[in-house]
Design brief:
single chain; about 400 residues; mainly alpha; three-stranded antiparallel β-sheet; 3 strands; about 55% helix; about 0% strand; globular; binds s-citryldethia Coenzyme A; tricarboxylic acid cycle; transferase; acyltransferase activity, acyl groups converted into alkyl on transfer; Citrate synthase
Length: about 400
Amino acid sequence: ERGLRVADRGFMNTAVIESTITYIDGDNGILRYRGYPIEQLAESSSFLEVAYLLIYGALPSTRQFDLFEHEVMTHSIAHVDTEGFFHSFRYDAHPMAILTSAFAALGSYYAEANPSLQGQALFTKSDPASLANMDKQIYRLIGKATTLAAMAYRVRQGRDFVVPPVGMSYTESFLYQLDHLGEGDYRPNPVLSKALDVLFLLHADHELNASATTVLQTGSSLVDPYSAISTGCASLYGPLHGGANEAVIRMLISIGKPENVPAFLEAVKRREKVLSGFGHRVYKTSDPRSFIVRRTADEVFKVTGKDELLETAMKLHDMALKDDYFVSRKLAPNVDFWSGLIYRAMGFPLDFFPVLFAVPRVVGWLAHWRQMMLQPGGVKIWRPRQIYLGAGKREYVPIDKRK
Ligand code: SDX
């Protein structure tokens, strides 16, 4: 095929879209959502306000935010039939496997999500009805992300599902449904609620990471957004991506005491182990989110007490940042290195950590999906080519004639 060239492995230097949503400068450790520096948003905004910003492109007015929050919270209730769906999993099913399936199942509840209808009901900026339909699907997915995640959490513990009281914030209602400390009567803790809201905000979007690309690849066939989001959730589940926050804690537990860190790093250099929570395709310096997560961890530890793995994490962090093997490969902490310590200190089970990444990332996936649906000239299906290196033409040989 003339003119075709294979992109660098893993799309190393390949841009597949133009976007106005998130900006990353990997050399200088810069991250901005719609132009706003992540540090300012973490300091002054909230997850749900940032959700509006990422999806619609501007910070909302009070009225716009109140309407958005009302719609999201109204659509946070799951159909009662989904309870049977959650009870169909084995007692020890990984909550990300449950959540991925739940997003795909969600589309089957909504006639207008039917892909064939979707194809005919292409979203067009000039058609208010189709835009309203798109917004409703966006509200449903954001609102139900916490409910489905909480159901995946509670079904594993053999506990009934709960519906949070009206009037709670998005993050607070999630913590209420989880009641992850299992005391049966959820008591809000402002420090922990704020910490989770900041973590949600930091995880909301990150331009074209593997899971966002997956959502766009799937969504480009005009399938419904529930199915597209479920494929993003599947991609995020992997230990090279959102599963890294769980992998970091498993790594720290396997290292144990700080004095075992040098031997672990030597094993990493021999490629016998992976240093989870380090390295990034785009950041060639520390991930700017990791500094905010680290500071948030100190706030949380004031309430929960320090995690005994913190010393080991700090020793690992400090030694790796001074070790030429990692420095020469520009490996630095990413968003996952410290976040797991916070989730652990807050009392979440280990395999629930990637779910705490997936819930806020639904917003980023939807922002990119909406941008693609409304792009000028309409949606073009993503269908890359290949360079064929296989056998040339050859004749079929019946099995009794083969050697
Ligand atoms: C997230 O893309 C995003 O934006 C993702 C994310 C988001 O918000 O969506 O930021 C969230 O997924 C963060 C990353 C979480 N994953 C981990 O922490 C897993 C550990 N990290 C590595 O698997 C790796 O760094 C990746 C997957 C994150 C990036 O891989 P790349 O870009 O393909 O880099 P690479 O494998 O080509 O590595 C370059 C070199 C190699 O050495 P050489 O073979 O050239 O000698 O660095 C080495 C790698 O072996 N290397 C590591 C390493 N990461 C890379 N060596 C030891 N430990 C590591 N963690």
